[in-house]
Amino acid sequence: MTGDTRHQNALLTLEGMTKAYPGVVANDQVSFSILPGEVHALLGENGAGKSTLVKMIYGLVKPDAGQMTLRGESFAPVNPAAARSSGVTMVFQHFSLFDALSVAENISLGMDNPPDRRVLSARIREVSQAYGLPLDPHRVVGDLSAGERQRVEIIRCLLQDPKLLIMDEPTSVLTPQEVDILFKTLRKLTAEGTAILYISHKLEEIRTLCEHATVLRLGKVVDTCDPREKSARQLAEMMVGDTLHVPSREAADPGPVALSMTDVSMKSPSEFGTDLRNISLEVRKGEVLGIGGVAGNGQDELLAVLSGEGRAQTGAITLGGDDITLLHPNARRARGLLTAPEERLGHSAAPDMSLTENALLTGAVREKLVDRGFLKWGRTEDFARRIITAFDVRTPGPDNAAGSLSGGNLQKFVIGREVLQRPDVLVVNQPTWGVDASAAAAIRQSLLDLAHHGAAVVVISQDLDELMEVADRFTALNEGRLADPVPTQGLDVETIGLMMGGVHGETAA
Amino acid sequence: MDLGQINPLLLLASLMVAATPILLAAIGEAVVEKSGVLNLGVEGMMITGAVVGFAIGVNTGSPAIGFVAAAAAGAALSMLFGVLVLYLMSNQVATGLGLTLFGLGLSSLIGKPYEGLKAPSMAKWDIPVLGDIPILGPILFRHDPMVYVSLIIVAATWYVLTRTRAGLILRGVGENHDAAHALGYKVVRVRLMAIAFGGACAGLGGAYVSLVRVPQWVEGMTAGAGWIALAIVVFASWRPWRVLLGAYLFGGITVLQLNLQAAGAAIPVEILAMSPYIVTILVLVVISLRGNHGAPGSLGRIFHATH
């Protein structure tokens, strides 16, 4: 279809949308149109301006210039309620749900004129059945799985009879089976004439689902294409505007067991967390073990019990043959077990402290940055500078606050900080979460290099493509239990899905 | 010791009077915290309400006008807190503590000319028929109107929070302010209204002390009631009826231990004096042990609209 006919039949047309923030132009003259019943992908690296653009469509951000036309009429929503009443709804990347409220209350809050609670409950049941997304309106959202929580968001949108549904990274927390269910629902919606604006980093999904793609780079539309006719690599290179480096690994024979867990159980420290149940695993030197699973199945707890932040109630953890079950984090670091938790701001780094200070926080023991209780700032700054150089962290210098770095740069810093301490065992959780393609490739390469030099690496991640790329063996967490690890080579999606869904035994075949 | 001196009817009747100031302050603070704001300035707003209510009551001769003025004063002071916390993003704990100190100082200044005066008396309601019921009548139905106003406020708070859309939005804002903002709710406006309600309730509670309970103006006369109200909100798991239970428990034991002291009980005075605090906290802790009654998810967190 040519640009002109797209324009004439469009459901929503954007013309010259521009939004500038102090120091950065988030969107610069963005124009494109969305047809009714179309799944339209919005592609771009982090910081390309996708979020700002959809927030303008949803009425959360006021554009500086440009105009939108919805079904032939001028469309300038002043707030999300106005957007919703025009038929534009949105499912957020980080779920906009209220943990302590029930499903029905959550849905009611997302509607402008919610019906009486009994009528609403009946409507929720009805719509959730019709679209194959069963949901009990009276359950408390805090107790739901990630997939069920997303259903709440989707049904909240469906109840308002949307013309355009915006989805921001909807599949990042779903199992492959749940992704299938979601895609079926979306196809059903498009068959009814609803258009979907779809944002995702997962290029394979975009190739399966979307009919049209608009590519953003640094706030500008750089290309449009039919993603079904491109390869994932071509799409990635359109986003980056450059050829993409794919991590490579050199085969190495696994050495002796570096880290083992035997029958470890731990109660989750947080109210909505997952308890670890009888976890046993072995990781050998020179090996990368990938641990998949949907968020909230015990990933944070597994990292905590390995780092020493949590204490196992039963079972034993050994490092190079020594029992470390009762050791504190610093004692474990001294023996060569390093960790990098998922949450960048506030867990693996202190946002308001400088990079030098952050380097000290985990490097003090192994890099000998403390002498009889006194800090050696010179040495610490050297260490921070080494991380910045070795991992290409884009920052004016080590005196900058960790919170001022972009997600990808900070992630390179926290991973680099652990890698440069030459760990015997490194455990990372979501090493490339929310990181753009080139930074993610660099981080994965550094993990592979580390394993090649003889360290054991455990990668906990929800990104299956990432695990397939770096891991020698794969396993998955489900409700705090760990499946038996299997070699990554020749693993098919169905087996992975079963392992993530907690079906064991059949996977051995 | 002569326990026969203690009249159970009088004891139960005075329980409601003793508990009312704390009940009013606590129910207001419960709403504020449900909206996600921690206002530690309850004591300051109470004492300001006490002095303003007393001054206006003395000058006009009408306790009712005094109460209205006290509510307005408490709300006005809470708006100072609201602007600092919601618009200037100051730290809620530090600002709340500052508000208490400010309120204590301000009330001493306003109250100087009123020391030693007597408050205009507030007529008790003798509710016909109900007040004549034996036993229950004197306990429940022969109080001043403010006791019933406080009970109506508790019931209304419960109804609004659990049964209405306004209450649902307020709980949503307190549970996850980023999500509420993303859905298009005015987080700051909702919180400002909740803070004003909390301030007005604290002002009423303070005025009840100076106009009914004592009834005269003494510097620092709320004597930590605001802090007890704060504790009761937490131990009551932010639920209106449990706030009522906690406040009446505290009031009841306060009255009982005063009676025991007067009767010359062979228990050290210090233990009697601390008993209301200990018993109230113990009972509410035991209740809140069961089930999940967590704090509002966004309680005390600064809201920054990032878009």
UniProtKB/TrEMBL annotation, chain A:
Q: Which CDD domains match?
A: ABC_Carb_Monos_I, ABC_Carb_Monos_II
List where this protein forms a coiled coil: none
Q: Which UniProt keywords apply?
A: ATP-binding, Nucleotide-binding
Q: Which residues form the ABC transporter domain?
A: 12-243, 259-504
State whether keyword Methyltransferase applies.
no
Keyword Transcription included in the entry's annotation: no
Q: Which InterPro entries is this protein grouped with?
A: AAA+_ATPase, ABC_carbohydrate_import_ATPase, ABC_transporter-like_ATP-bd, ABC_transporter-like_CS, P-loop_NTPase
Give the protein's recorded name: ABC transporter
UniProtKB/TrEMBL annotation, chain B:
> Where are its TM segments located?
6-25, 37-58, 64-86, 93-111, 145-161, 192-211, 217-236, 243-260, 266-289
Name the membrane topology term. Multi-pass membrane protein
Task: State the compartments where it is located.
Answer: Cell membrane
Q: One Pfam family of this protein, by short name?
A: BPD_transp_2
Top-level taxon of the source organism: Bacteria
Query: Which key words tag this protein in UniProt?
Result: Cell membrane, Membrane, Transmembrane, Transmembrane helix
PANTHER family to which the protein is assigned, alphabetical: ABC TRANSPORTER PERMEASE PROTEIN, SUGAR ABC TRANSPORTER INTEGRAL MEMBRANE PROTEIN-RELATED
Query: What protein name is recorded for this chain?
Result: ABC transporter permease
Origin species, per record, is Aliiroseovarius zhejiangensis
